[in-house]
Amino acid sequence: RLARDAKDAGIPLVFRGVPETKESTDSKLPLLNPQSLVAFQSLIDSGADVQLNPGLFSEFNIRQVPALILKEESSASSDGCIQSAKAVIVPGDVTLGYALDRLTDRKDSIGEAARALRAKLGNRP
Asked: 87-91 and 82-83: which strand pairing?
């Protein structure tokens, strides 16, 4: 369900890496080999945008999954400096609709993004 909802909302499913398999202990196999990618096949088949990005987990100190991250894009200020992006993380094994609902009352760009994404899911819980 999460894969379907993420696909419909246009949100990628991001993983830290590939699951370890018996084959992955063979140092001659590349990290992204067909055996390691088989775990993602059902998500890919559902049309979900599946990404591997261990840096994202480090950047936001993600220790509990699943987690929804809504990130405000960095922007240049009037003095030409880049303002750092802020993000809100909703951890927990909940539906995407529920996670977005937790953010829709915000009066900032994160709340605006949450409302737009929530609208794409319609009445789904």
From this structure: unpaired
**Angstrom distance (rounded) from CA 76 to CA 43:** 36
Question: How many residues does this entry show for the chain?
Answer: 125
At 23-69, the pLDDT tens digits run 545 555 555 566 667 778 899 899 999 998 888 888 889 988 899 99
Among 90, 109, 85, residue whose Cα is nearest residue 101: 90
User: What is the spatial distance between Cα 104 and Cα 121, in angstroms, rounded to a whole number?
Assistant: 13
**What DSSP line would sit under 57-97, residue for residue?**
HHHTT--SSSEEEEEPPPEE-TTSPEEPP-EEEEESS--HH
